[in-house]
Task: inverse folding
């Protein structure tokens, strides 16, 4: 029984807010006030960040690979769109949560397919589910609007007070607040005993089961949480753009998501957030250079990252910040170093 | 009744084509445990090479086909030696990311070089139209595909079963470590097989331009089909993928004919069900590696 206090103290120590994290969120808020002309793209980044956060929860913490995370994004997007279009729930915040739960239900039913099998089967099954939903959405075009997408969505003001404006100011702050709240929740989850048990499962499922962790139940639970997050991200997409089309399910969306997480690093929650910022900036940069062929450069970035090695790139990227912090504080770096990725 | 036979015929042609396109992937996955989502890019390369040769340089179609094979195999060989071999020991996630990156690059590169519209290959007159066989309409082009792919399949089976290279390859698939211990140069075997698989994909791409359509998004559109063939068929032999391709081809053609509104829905559902039921593929052995 002597190890118990050690585990809890280390868990509590790990959960403590670091200066770097506080600085990160201050920068986020500052961006909202410093660049008033860039609300639309910043909203996009915030949405992507939330989406990447949801993948990080299963990939970085539970070791579940997914090539079809867009399925949940799409379900959230269409749920929010349909709720608003038919006036079922006019309050955006409630609709957001309902859309998240819709994705969560899908997550619950598909989790049984996903927790079975090895990496390859998981990749195939998740990809298949996303493609299946895309085919379904196309098939039932009477409900989803088919290839035209849902049109004529009109969002009501948030909480009846803050109307969505054309510059996207409301959208940005709305998305950022949602992201921050869900981030707090995710942070709480991964530093809880539940989160620790997930990491045990990721590192060695067999040993996890042997020390008494109900592996399948934990995986289903985190998969549902992740689906909820992705659904919320999708709903935010619909609410802030007043649009939902078939491409919310597309393979490219899932692949881009993977890229974001790979850029940012998995398993420390900020990876998805940083990755989303870098990815969006790269995308903007490439599409200003070559509007039509930016896909090539995105592909090249992926190939280079994998060939050089993800861990090595993160070490290079963190070298300068670590150096600065060591100079200033005179102790070992407190910059979050990404954990090694699950194989 | 005759429609049934026509569907069966078209389905078999389609399935054979899928087999030629995907069997290289089966070997890559089975031998090196490498998830190569970029396999379709090699098929696309073969298709475009054939299209350029036939349409722009005026080569006869049947002369361009072998060249599509050789060129794709060469591209495959170069990429294997320069890029792929660094990734064999990496995790599946890394391999998936890497090959998705390659797919993106190939899509944009072909779009840049050849334009984004669908490309047609000019066929010789002998291959156009169809003839009547006991009331069943037989497309000449599809008949040719069945003949070519059938011969290829037989040849592949013979190579695998009868030649020394075939037995080395099978040994390497079954247990790479023991094969290395017996003095088989597994990386070399793999490089050849990889190039050969890419060549077959290129040939398949050239043949499929007429049926599947050839545009820059080919690798993305048909990636799932190749993966279905391999995962459903299992990657331990070529009979598995062959039967899986036939099933998929006939199922897809029949599905599109009888329940056109359900689209690809049927195929994806079948795939998920099979993967849940037999995670190692319908015809795969249960030995997990």
Result:
């Amino acid at each position: 029984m002597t190890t118990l206090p050690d585990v809890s103290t280390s868990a509590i120590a790990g959960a403590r807010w670091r200066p770097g994290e506080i600085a990160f969120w201050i920068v986020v808020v500052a961006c909202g006030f410093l660049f008033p002309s860039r609300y639309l793209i910043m909203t996009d980044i915030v949405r992507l960040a939330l989406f990447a956060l949801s993948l990080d929860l299963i990939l970085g913490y539970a070791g579940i690979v997914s090539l079809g995370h867009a399925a949940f994004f799409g379900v959230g997007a269409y749920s929010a769109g349909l709720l608003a279009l038919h006036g079922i729930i006019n309050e955006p915040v409630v609709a957001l949560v309902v859309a998240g739960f819709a994705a969560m239900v899908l997550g619950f039913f598909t989790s049984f397919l996903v927790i079975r099998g090895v990496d390859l089967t998981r990749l195939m099954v998740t990809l298949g589910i996303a493609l299946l939903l895309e085919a379904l959405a196309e098939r039932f075009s009477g409900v989803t609007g088919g290839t035209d997408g849902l049109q004529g969505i009109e969002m009501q003001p948030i909480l009846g007070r803050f109307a969505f404006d054309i510059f996207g100011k409301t959208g940005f702050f709305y998305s950022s607040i949602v992201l921050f709240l869900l981030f707090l929740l995710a942070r709480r989850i991964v530093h809880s005993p539940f989160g620790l048990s997930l990491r045990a499962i990721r590192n060695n499922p067999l040993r996890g089961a042997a020390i008494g962790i109900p592996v399948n139940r934990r995986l289903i639970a985190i998969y549902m949480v992740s689906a909820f997050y992705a659904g919320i991200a999708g709903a935010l997409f619909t609410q802030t753009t007043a649009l939902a089309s078939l491409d919310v399910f597309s393979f490219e969306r899932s692949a881009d998501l993977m890229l974001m997480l790979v850029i940012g690093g998995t398993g420390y929650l900020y990876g998805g957030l940083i990755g989303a910022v870098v990815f969006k900036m790269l995308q903007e940069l490439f599409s200003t250079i070559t509007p039509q062929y930016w896909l090539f450069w995105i592909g090249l970035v992926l190939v280079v990252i994998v060939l050089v090695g993800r861990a090595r790139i993160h070490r290079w990227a963190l070298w300068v910040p670590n150096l600065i912090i060591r100079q200033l504080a005179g102790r070992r770096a407190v910059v979050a170093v990404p954990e090694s990725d699950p194989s | 009744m005759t429609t049934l036979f026509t569907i069966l015929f078209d389905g078999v042609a389609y399935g054979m084509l899928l087999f030629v396109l995907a069997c290289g992937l089966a070997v890559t996955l089975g031998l090196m445990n490498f998830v190569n989502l970029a396999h379709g890019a090699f098929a696309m390369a073969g298709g475009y090479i054939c299209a350029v040769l036939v349409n722009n340089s005026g080569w006869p179609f049947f002369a361009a086909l072998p060249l599509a094979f050789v060129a794709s195999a060469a591209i495959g060989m170069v990429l294997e030696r320069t890029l792929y071999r660094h990734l064999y020991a990496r995790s599946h996630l890394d391999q998936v990311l890497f090959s998705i990156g390659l797919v993106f690059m190939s899509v944009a590169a072909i779009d840049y070089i050849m334009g984004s519209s669908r490309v047609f290959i000019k066929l010789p007159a002998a291959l156009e139209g169809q003839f009547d066989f006991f009331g069943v309409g037989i497309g000449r082009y599809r008949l040719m595909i069945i003949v070519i792919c059938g011969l290829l399949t037989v040849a592949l089976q013979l190579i695998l079963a009868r030649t020394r290279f075939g037995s080395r390859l099978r040994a390497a698939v079954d247990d790479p470590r023991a094969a290395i211990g017996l003095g088989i140069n597994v990386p070399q075997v793999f490089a050849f097989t990889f190039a050969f698989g890419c060549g077959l994909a290129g040939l398949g791409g050239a043949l499929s331009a007429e049926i599947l359509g050839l545009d820059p998004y080919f690798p993305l559109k048909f990636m799932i089909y190749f993966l279905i063939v391999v995962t459903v068929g299992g990657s331990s032999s070529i009979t598995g993928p062959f039967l899986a391709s036939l099933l998929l081809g006939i199922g897809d053609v029949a599905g599109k004919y009888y329940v056109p509104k359900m689209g690809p829905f049927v195929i994806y559902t079948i795939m998920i069900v099979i993967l849940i039921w037999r995670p190692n593929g319908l015809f795969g052995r249960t030995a997990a590696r």
